[in-house]
Fold this protein.
Amino acid sequence: MMIFNKKKIIIFTICALFATENVFSSERSLISKIRFSGNNESIRVIIDSNNLIKHEISAFNNPSRIVVDLYNVKFSEDFSFPKATGVVEGIRYAEFNANTSRIVFDLNESPNVKNVKVLKPSSGSIRRLSFDIVSNKKITAIKSKKVNKNYKLRKTIVIDPGHGGKDPGTSYPKVVSEKDIVLRFARILKKHLSRNNNYRIFLTREDDSFVSLSDRVSFAKSKNADLFISIHADASSSSNTKGLSVYTLSDKGLDKEAEKLAAIENSYAMVGSSYSGNYLRNARNPSDFVKYQRKLIDNRFKSTKFASTLTSRVKSKTSLLNNPLRSAGFAVLKSDEFPSVLVELGFVTNEYDRKNLRSGNWLQSISSQFVNAINEYFK
Ligand SMILES: [Zn+2]
């Protein structure tokens, strides 16, 4: 590996033509000092001189070393080499030929040279040539930091407590109201998830206020959600029906969305069409339509994956509805932007579920299983 600074070569060439005397004087540049700074992982070699030094820095393996050739230099009387440290195991010096002084830095690991610079400090006439000898440990650390950073890019989870405000959802009169249970659960889940710095968590409503279905989806989009979890509780005409279930968007729902889009696409053929539906934002031309469909299908696949992870996690803590993995055309599941599921925690109309839904311990333990499932999903 040859380290060569092209910029400097160009400068040297120009100067050689017009101002040789000033830049590389026939007089030898005087090197007053070579010193090290930094630590075991990265050593900066600094060479002080009274003039620009024409130099060449090369790195070699077997044995591992960095060779610095300095042209037309001499050393000051009190000059001494710094002590070997960190990756630098030893320093050798030789007059390579009449004009070339060669300094060899012997290393105890493969050579990495970075940041070769020539500096003129703001005051005085000293010129400084510096470069870094970087340990592999540091390079590996930098690389793995980058990898970790990618791996740990924070995931955004939007939790959607259903209903709220004027819309109470289902209820078991005077005992439980869906809108309250789901908000309580969403808050617990947010608290649990917040312990993990890799997650950003948002609720579509923080209190007992009414939020429209489309606003819930738009909110999640605006936050660039990686996962959308809508929380609900169910009711049944049969008091025996009980258990948790998880919904993803049904084929029918998926087809309906596709149909809507197809209708919009077709409308493009109509001159002066005044269609101004939401989906125009998603499907401006046929290739967008295909992309939209692909994203919708891809996200549905991810939604199904998460739904199945979630049911397998929570089943140790509560009873599940028969065929707990279900699909329906819920409006909040119809985004192409992110995977989404709708969880029915249980039935307010069933005594066993009702007791659970009102129990802080039960909500906590189910929330923990949600966290496990989310961790597993993003792993
Ligand atoms: Zn509901």
Remarks:
- Residues 32 and 79 are 6 Å apart (CA to CA).
- The longest strand covers residues 29-38.
